[in-house]
Design goal:
511 residues; alpha/beta; Alkaline Phosphatase, subunit A; Arylsulfatase, C-terminal domain; 3 domains; ten-stranded mixed beta sheet; 11 helices; 16% strand; disordered N terminus
Length: 511
């Protein structure tokens, strides 16, 4: 081929490639704001009157507020696993609540929500809580580059905490290295036995500014005893009161740096998870004590994201989703006055149960979607779930999923965009055992597990006999119809068993 002709063809081929501007013209930026333990009734737009949440409420006024949206699971690690992988976590061993030194539970290269968007030309970032493990099977070496991590499953940028605020190590990681680590003060972490000479809450309660109510009495960091033992990394340790500011600043910077190309930001806040230690400017700003104050702090974080979009003129073509990883919990390990200062506030609103529970309070969560260019404001009763992000974002970006990708994820994009009143037909809810939602009906499988979560005053929702509720008439799950309707109970139990055995093989419109 003559050189001139080859050059012309090469230029033409380059011109045909979708540029970031071209992709962005018909595809939105996507920001997922995920709170930690925020209940269905914890914000103003979902009925709270004692905790001011003007920014969440502003998002709801401009978007679509869902009344039957769910995480898959009533605790954080499994819920976050499902959100990213599109797979029910109970299908995979090792997806329970992880210690802070666990190896990564999503294999490198597995298709995730982030990877789907990365394939579509999006710049992808995660800021905040991770809690999906890091490093290989034996866990991470905190003093070197840690991999696999977020980068290996589709995130171009990451600024994260490894696990939870109440677990060691109490350090941040940016792009898979501990931030501010002094190599002369290496980090060592153990969940089996004490390491180093750092004081513990059990032995030195006089050093604590927040005291544990159960557990949480091991290594003290910033005046708070945690789960697990840690030594070293003194210069890298976080200050709890500054955590919301730190994560929000990193999230805003990611938006600023990627404003000229399509981006996906997974912003996973710490609040209102324990330990609840708000910045001083939020102390006393709610009518519900410290738990209410950290919800006000979360609302500020959400507001900073919305304000940044407005400042950069990105708001109209950005799909913002705000939700929570599971339902609420009041006493979750620290004597912080949260239970004593509810003052009539109901974190789960009209729902029964909360975090750890098979009742609706465990997985039914706030879920608000705003995209001014496409979504009409309003309210939706469509049944949707975080597990469906993978298939729905694939559909949004014109991709077909291969066999095995997001096996339990369903394309509910029309419901998310408010174009359909129907989402999923069925959904499996997960705590210690499983429950099946089938439209307005809900069946909880029999289990001899304890009915209450130790030390939390939370109903688990288990019973040796099966439970059947009709949520359209009984949202609070007070009238068990299993005995009155044995045929329906039997049918739903069979469907639940079939779903468990199917391995997520049912077809999906995105494929």
């Amino acid at each position: 081929m003559p050189l001139r002709t080859a050059l012309v063809l090469a230029v033409a081929a380059l011109a045909a490639q979708p540029t970031p501007a071209a992709v962005r013209a018909d595809r939105p930026n996507i920001i997922l704001i995920l709170a930690d333990d925020l209940g269905f009734g914890d914000t103003g737009c979902y009925g709270a009157s004692r905790i001011p949440t003007p920014n969440v409420d502003r998002l709801a006024r401009g978007g679509l507020r869902f009344r039957d949206a769910h995480s898959t699971s009533a605790t954080c690690t499994p819920a976050r696993y499902a959100l990213l992988t599109g797979e029910y976590p109970w299908r995979k061993k090792g997806t329970g609540v992880l210690p802070g030194d666990a190896g990564m539970i999503i294999p490198a290269g597995q298709t995730t929500t982030a990877l789907v968007l990365q394939r579509a030309g999006y710049r992808t970032g995660v800021v905040g809580k991770w809690h999906l493990g890091l490093g290989g099977k034996g866990g991470p070496d905190w003093n070197r580059e840690i991999k696999p991590g977020p980068r290996e499953i589709g995130f171009d940028y990451s600024f994260i905490m490894a696990a939870t605020g109440d677990r060691v190590p109490c350090v941040y990681l940016e792009n898979q290295r501990v931030v501010g680590l002094d190599p002369n003060d290496p980090i060592q972490v153990s969940y089996d036995r004490p390491v180093g000479v750092d004081p513990t809450g059990k032995d030195h309660p006089e050093l604590l500014k927040v005291h544990p109510s159960h557990g949480h009495d091991q290594t003290i960091v910033n005046g708070i005893s945690r789960i697990g033992y840690m030594t070293g990394g003194k210069a890298a340790r976080w200050v709890d009161e500054e955590m919301a500011d730190t994560f929000t600043r990193k999230a805003v910077t990611f938006i600023e740096q990627n404003k000229d190309r399509p981006f996906f930001l997974y912003f996973a806040t710490h609040d209102p998870h324990v330990p609840r230690v708000p910045h001083p400017r939020f102390v006393g700003k709610s009518g519900c004590g410290v738990r209410g104050d950290v919800i006000v702090q979360f609302d500020w974080c959400a507001g900073e994201i919305l304000n940044t979009l407005d400042r950069l003129n990105l708001g109209k073509n950005t799909l913002v989703i705000l939700s929570s990883d599971n339902g609420p919990v009041v006493d979750d390990g620290y004597r912080d006055g949260a239970a004593e200062n509810l003052n009539g506030h109901r974190p789960a609103g009209p729902l029964r149960g909360g975090k750890y529970s098979l009742f609706e309070g465990g997985t039914r969560v706030p879920f608000i979607v705003r995209w001014p260019q496409r979504i009409e404001p309003g309210v939706s009763d469509a049944l949707v779930c975080h597990i469906d992000f993978l298939a729905s974002f694939a559909a949004l970006t014109g991709q077909k999923l291969a066999a095995g990708e997001g096996p339990d994820s369903r394309n509910v994009l029309p419901a998310i965009l408010g174009q359909s009143k129907v989402g999923r037909d069925q959904l499996v809810e997960h705590a210690r055992v499983l429950a099946l939602r089938d439209g307005a009906w809900k069946y909880i499988e029999p289990s001899p597990e304890p009915k209450w979560k130790a030390n939390t005053a939370t109903e688990i929702g288990t019973d040796p006999a099966g439970q059947l509720y009709h949520l359209a008439d009984d949202l609070g799950e007070t009238n068990n119809l299993a005995r009155a309707q044995p045929d329906r109970s039997r049918k739903l139990l069979e469907q639940l068993r079939s779903t468990r055995q199917a391995g997520g093989a049912s077809p999906d419109a995105a494929r």
